[in-house]
Write a structure and sequence with these properties.
Layout lengths: L1 E12 L2 E12 L3 E5 L6 H8 L7 E6 L2 E2 L5 H7 L1 E4 L11 H8 L6 H14 L1 H5 L10 H13 L5 E5 L7 H18 L2 E6 L2 H7 L2 E6 L2 E7 H6 L1 H6 L13
Parallel strand pairs: 3-8, 3-9, 6-7, 7-8
Antiparallel strand pairs: 1-2, 1-4, 4-5, 9-10
Helix pairs in contact: 3-6, 7-8
Length: 246
Amino acid sequence: MSLLEVDDLWTAYGPITVNRQISLSVDEREIVTIIGPNGAGKSTLLRVLAGLKRPTRGSVRLAGRELGGMPADRVARAGMVLVPEGRRIFADISVRDNLRLGGYCRYDPKAVQAEIGVMEALFPILAQKRHARGSELSGGQQQMLAIARGLMARPKLLLLDEPSLGLAPIMVKEVRGLIASIRERFGTTILLVEQNASLALAVADRGYIMQTGQFVAAGPIAELRSLEVMRQAYLGDARRPGRAPA
């Protein structure tokens, strides 16, 4: 059963169309990835889904409920939570307070406190650093905090935007395992945006390839691996494209 359904979504910044004719679905407990270069419109799409950017037109439904154009707080309360690119943690407050803010929409202080314990068990480094400020964490630790903060809301659908960006290879491997464990432990459905095709293909069930604001291919991971556009652009069969400005 589809948890997320997006139909003919268009997004623009002024006269510039960024997303066009976007239709996708994500089933319950599925991990779906969107792969594409910088500037393809991937992050803009996640911002629209999370309520941070209004679409020009189109439909976004979560569990059958229309959310397109709703503000971000209402989208989060409905069960769709974004872990943004660049982590965006609160640098000047403690790790524990960052986690506490992630549970703001749960209205139950005891449940939030219990959930902090769950997150500290899942991410032991956050327990060790609970009193440290966000700015005192390494890049990998900040990414763990950002993901844990998103999970504090117990979302139905977790949107992950470039979780491997800027991380050392050993941390990328840890993030890959973490994404799989989130689904196994919490049953969370995940929509993953990634430039790192190796990571995305290793954890996802299905995927979409985005170029210049629209999907050019979609299907199960095994099918995507066999496509010429995937092999040449993302799997090393030809020179990798450079990173363009976001």
